Structure prediction request, 631 residues.
Amino acid sequence: MEEELQPEYGPKWSDQRVERMLGTLVVFIVGLLLALIVVVVINGWPSFAHNGLSWFGPGGNVDDQLSAISQSAETGAGYIYTFHAWPLIWSTILICGGAVVLGLVTALFISVFLTEFAPAWMSNLLRPVVRFLASVPSVIYGLLGVLVLVPFIGNHLITEHQKASVAGIISLTGYSLIAAVIVLTIMIAPLMVSIFTDALSSVKPGWLEGSLALGVNRWRTIWKIGVRAARPAIVAGTVLALARAIGESVMLAMISGSTAFAPNPADGLIFIYEPSRPLAPTIVKSVDQLSSPPAKATLFAIATFLLFSGAMFSLAGALTRRAMNKYGAA
Amino acid sequence: MESLAPDTAPSAPPPIRRLDPQDPTPAQEAVPTTATSFVAAKRSIAAPQFSIRRMEVDRVSIHYGAKAAVKGVSLPIRQGEVLALIGPSGCGKTTLLRSLNRLTELTAAARLSGSIRLDDVDIRLIEPTLLRRRVTMVFQQPNPFPMSVFDNIAYVLREQGSRRVRKKALEPQVHSALARAGLFEEVKDNLKHPALKLSGGQQQRLCIARALAAEPEVLLLDEPCSALDPQSTAVIEDLIVRLRDDVAVVIVTHNLQQAYRIADHVAFMYLGDLVEYNSATRLFNSPTQQRTAEYVSGAFG
Ligand SMILES: Nc1ncnc2c1ncn2[C@@H]1O[C@H](COP(=O)(O)OP(=O)(O)OP(=O)(O)O)[C@@H](O)[C@H]1O
Ligand SMILES: [Mg+2]
Prediction:
């Protein structure tokens, strides 16, 4: 009797066994990630090695540099690596930074409205819609941008006078910084809204009620207690949106204007109509040059840069969250 | 503001004597009926020195949709006294308490009829945020904000002021609120620490301090001790009795011994009805209603 019962004693899936399997999986994934980083960095290294710190700086026309690099493989006169990425980096900063700041502000207000002020039916309707919007493929946003926003900006917002004033330097067609920022904002804001609303609605009701019961009005309560308590999730959502923005290539390649121009705020307000091209779309645009070794190194160097900035933002986000969690908000 | 430390306040009542079988002093109010130990524990604190009628609940009924949670309740709330609301679970105590500072309005389904007056002004005529500063509430679950101990109190003060105030300027008020809630000595060195790291009893006293920082005229307490150990409960009970001269105190409690110890008047509710409103001594020792007698004896019997 006892011997028969013996095998039934322990569950088939003991905790230790599950733990070991998951542990192996995690190690495997981390290994894969490390391998990926190593491959990217090794491939990009020649470009960094030849340019040193000036890789990140300004100097010359990036598009000319890129074609010189890819053609140098065929001339036989030795590879050319000279590359100064600043216009691309600057464009990335302007477009992604602009979209994230704009998206953060809009998403916060929309989320506060949806969780605290909207009637239940509206909130129940809009929250799934927002989640859906967050999952729309970016190429669709790109198409709409090309079809609607770019012509509108080119034909109605930019004046002939403005076009003439920079005619010698760059042509203003509507493919512009502002178009890219707007479409990118529309693309990442739903992601932020869906993360923020989840965070705001999981703030302990007792905190909000406690504040209301002390005679603080709803608006102040939601900002000072609700949003404050949700800050770690807000930071996490913002970092996620920033990562998506930095990595966005197809849509930006379609809308930002395909010249490696560095829009100059010193030109006045007109700079928002100037075209540019961020880092990620540059890789997409030049991907057919990969057979040329120096071009390949340059593209992988760009990829390395993107990878490291992504990692830095995640790290900064994690540190900020930790600082905010000091009082046990999350 | 007058000092509230028990050793300096001239009219401060002596400390409450707690239920203690070893206690050698005989009970002062020996009552014949239901001679259980809790009766012997009736506090020896002085009877109220005075009492001023502050709030008036007048035939108040509250419905959640079609369901009646409170049915035609009328009772006075007086400063100088502690009023306890007792009754079985679901009888509408919390609902009635929340209606006193219009917190019921936050529940969309809730409908109130009848009237509640504060100093003879219908509370529907008082702007809700102003009313909630005059009538503050402490909840059953301690709910300190996820901030430092200091900021928990300072939050109330900052939100009340129209201009931004520097931390330094708020210190005296924060300290005095903490002192009134009997918490200052325990946290004075840790004012920057997270409030959520305090013990449950300290958290509840912090919530009381927060409610007091608003300088309320009426303090509503919804089962403030239900999550606490006897020691913390004792501290809070002392505090409540000490507060009654400055603010009208209404406390909901499931602990009948606690109601007996600290309340001057007790209201017994049953299924939304106010069955009996009477002085604590009379309600527990010679209830006029059959239901009250059953509830009181059932709980102690
Ligand atoms: N938000 C609400 N929506 C609908 N019904 C509610 C709501 N809050 C309370 N009720 C109902 O109203 C009645 C009274 O509830 P209330 O919370 O006032 O009781 P209580 O006396 O405080 O009970 P307890 O002692 O368990 O806290 C209950 O039947 C409850 O189901
Ligand atoms: Mg209750």
About this structure: The first helix of chain A runs from residue 2 to 5. The CA atoms of residues 199 and 224 of chain A lie 15 Å apart. The pocket of magnesium ion (ligand 2) is lined by residues B 93-94, 222 (CB under 6 Å). Chain A has a mean pLDDT of 89.
